Amino acid sequence: MLQITRVDIVDGQTLDIELSNGHLILFDTRHLPKTNHSYDVLRDLEVLPRPGTDGQNIFWRDGPRIALEEILQWLSIQQ
């Protein structure tokens, strides 16, 4: 099963996500769906705090979670 092995922040707003298959995803959080208001707090920050991961989710303490499945869906829509 595909998992997130590491997640960091690049340039204050971009997630640098490393997957268990060796692929990297650079995801700009300013492009998070505006329909999910739990992401508003992330879009409003100039510099994101470093997130954590449990392998299937990226999360911030007392903040939102972004599932790997969601990220992969968003990437497939953008093609």
TrEMBL record:
Organism: Sedimentibacter hydroxybenzoicus DSM 7310
Name of the protein this chain belongs to: DUF2442 domain-containing protein
